[in-house]
Amino acid sequence: MSIPILAALALFPAMAGAWWLQRRSMNAGWVDVVWTFSLGLAGVVAVLATGEGARAWLVAALVAAWALRLGLYILGRTRGGPEDARYNHFRREWGAAFQQRMFGFLMIQAAAAALLMLPMVLAAASPRPLGWPDALAVLVLVVAVVGEGVADAQLGRFRANPANHGKVCDAGLWAWSRHPNYFFEWLHWLAYPLFALGADYGWLALLGPAFMYWLLVHVSGIPPLEAQMLRSRGEAYAAYQRRVSAFLPLPSGTTP
After folding, report:
1. In this structure, is residue 108 part of a structural domain?
2. pLDDT digits (tens, 9 = 90+) for 12-42
3. Cβ burial, residue 98 (10 Å; 0-12/13-18/19+)
4. Is residue 137 part of a domain?
5. Which residue segment(s) compose the domain that 180 sits in?
6. Tally of domains within the chain
7. What is the 3-state secondary structure (H, E, C) of 153-179?
8. Does the residue 254 lie in any domain?
9. pTM, rounded to two decimals
């Protein structure tokens, strides 16, 4: 069995470990920490096993940079902090069936991570020499990682100010998008199709941004988070929804 397939299969026991960790700690936020680091490590292994030369090392380094930045941020937020509002809502909604349903949910997350490894592998497999598409891919990925970091830092500063308790963050990037961190996370996945130009079936790398957009905008990202914000912030968040774009950064008053 090839190394990339083994790396993908390893995501399932990793997420089983995440289930055990969240059960022991009673904080399901650890799930996101394990998911991010596991996908990053599996991606790096698969990329280096598939690609050759400078391209493989470049893609592997960028995958590692993405996973380390995001994973360390979620780790810092989770350690000693309250449970993520989305998981806390699931805990209340699922009641006594929470642990059973959470395990199934995490197995779905493992399958999603395995699918998201494909764009990384295709990015490293292109036989063409490094050129302008790769430079553009690096630029996209760097902008995405830095942009997500800036959005996270702005939200962190807003929440750290006691005067903002119970208010809606609408400063900085949050005045352009209600979820700028999600937008930049999605943008990061656009880098892999650029790297994959010239690879056999390289167009399949588009599954990364397409799948991540669906997850963030329609499934596990915006819908449960905004439902929670409406419950906790009420009309203040509803007004924010009316004037600020949900996903794409746009001028205030534009809400597609």
Report:
1. yes
2. 999 999 999 999 999 999 999 999 999 999 9
3. middle
4. yes
5. 3-243
6. 1
7. HHHHHHHHCHHHCCCCCCCHHHHCCCC
8. no
9. 0.92
